[in-house]
């Protein structure tokens, strides 16, 4: 409730900016009233958990007058051209081990031909933004990357109640509107999630070939081979709890497709009913690595060994696409 806007970026035309904000609710009128007289709102889109305004501004300096003070906006340059034509992934991060971030990107480069990463860091205090950049720069085959410092409130979690988690959805739609707006295709996946292919095509190839430009996959919790009560890396997750427990979908989209142009990006959904009827496929599934976590949201380290079953195929996939270092502690 103390956050007015998240991001302001120059659009490629150079004469207007795009502002991304949590839902303004009662702050919309004060925000509009605080704009300079020579600024003009050209577009205003309101979504379930965020808003975006395209504002024509007269020059490089731009301030909003709120509560008796002028607040100058730090307007960043557009990254659209940086990622144009690339296959990318967008993710959020907070205090995940740097090795996990490296191995996540390494897996997708190796298994699916990932070329670019946009990562929003939600106030990690165990390392710096520069450390994340250095980590991603060591991933063989990764062509481009951008790491945003985004130390905003995440919003409530747990309790079984729906919460207005403005932050996560807004960050993904910053990537949609700017970084990946001209990308070849874009995947939404967390650091502890891996898309597993059952055929020869990568998730990007399948998405780019889909008539709606969208592919979604169902997933399952994967568990580590050992049962120590603490975090473990993705490579350790070679077991299933039987019967396998389904989890929410993940998606990949072509930003310039029918779906990409007309629907905002959500955490587990993109395209409304189109996703459910036309884009879900058995060609891919994803694993959610249960113990690859800092435990910020819930206790994910309680397991019972007798309930789990080793999957040799999953083990083979992970060994094929993760660095050998990841298995050194076996």
Written overview of the protein:
With 330 residues, the chain is of the alpha+beta class. The protein has helices at 28-33, 80-83, 98-112, 129-137, 166-179, 203-209, 258-262, 273-279, 312-321; strands spanning 7-10, 16-21, 40-46, 51-56, 63-66, 69-72, 87-93, 116-121, 144-149, 185-188, 193-197, 214-224, 237-241, 246-253, 280-289, 308-310. The strands form 3 sheets. Strands 7, 8, 9, 10, 11, 12, 13, 14, 15 and 16 form a 10-stranded mixed beta sheet that branches. Strand 5 (63-66) and strand 6 form a beta hairpin. The radius of gyration is 21 Å and the shape is globular. It starts with 6 loop residues before the first strand and ends in a 9-residue tail after the last helix. 37% of the residues are buried. The model has no long low-confidence stretch (mean pLDDT 90).
The global form is globular
The ordered string of helix (H) and strand (E) elements is EEHEEEEHEHEHEHEEHEEEHHEEH
Number of H- or I-type helical stretches:
9
Compute the gyration radius: what is it?
Answer: 21 Å
Distance, first to last CA? 46 Å
* Percent range of helical residues: 10-25%
What is the structural class?
alpha+beta
The number of E-state strands comes to: 16
Largest sheet: 10 strands, mixed
Q: Which blocks of ≥5 consecutive residues have pLDDT under 50?
A: none
Strand content: 25-35%
Mean pLDDT: 90
């Amino acid at each position: 409730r103390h956050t007015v806007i998240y991001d302001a970026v120059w659009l490629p035309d150079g004469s207007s900016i795009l502002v991304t904000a949590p839902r303004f609710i009662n702050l919309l009128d004060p925000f509009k009233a605080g704009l300079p007289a020579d600024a003009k709102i050209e577009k205003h889109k309101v979504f379930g958990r965020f808003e975006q305004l395209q504002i024509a501004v007269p020059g490089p300096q731009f301030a909003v007058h709120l509560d008796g003070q002028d607040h100058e906006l730090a307007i960043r340059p557009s990254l659209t051209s940086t990622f144009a034509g690339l296959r990318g992934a967008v993710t959020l991060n907070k205090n995940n081990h740097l090795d996990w971030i490296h191995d996540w990107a390494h897996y997708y480069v190796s298994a699916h031909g990932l070329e670019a990463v946009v990562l929003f860091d939600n106030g990690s205090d165990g390392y710096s933004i520069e450390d994340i950049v250095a980590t991603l720069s060591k991933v063989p085959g990764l062509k481009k990357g951008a790491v945003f410092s985004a130390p905003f409130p995440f919003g409530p979690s747990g309790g079984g109640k729906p919460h207005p988690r403005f932050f996560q959805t807004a960050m993904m739609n910053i990537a949609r509107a700017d970084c990946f707006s001209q990308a070849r295709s874009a995947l939404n996946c967390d650091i502890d999630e891996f898309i597993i292919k059952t055929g020869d095509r990568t998730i990007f190839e399948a998405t780019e070939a889909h008539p709606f430009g969208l592919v979604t996959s169902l997933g399952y919790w994967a568990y580590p081979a050992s049962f120590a009560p603490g975090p473990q890396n993705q490579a350790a997750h070679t077991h299933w709890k039987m019967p396998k427990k389904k989890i929410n979908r993940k998606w990949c989209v072509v930003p310039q497709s029918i779906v990409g142009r007309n629907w905002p990006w959500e955490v587990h959904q993109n395209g409304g009913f189109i996703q459910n009827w036309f884009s879900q496929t058995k060609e891919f599934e994803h694993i959610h690595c249960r113990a690859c976590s800092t435990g910020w949201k819930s206790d994910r380290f309680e397991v019972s060994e007798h309930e789990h079953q080793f999957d040799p195929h999953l083990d083979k996939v992970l060994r094929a696409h993760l660095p050998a270092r990841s298995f050194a502690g076996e």
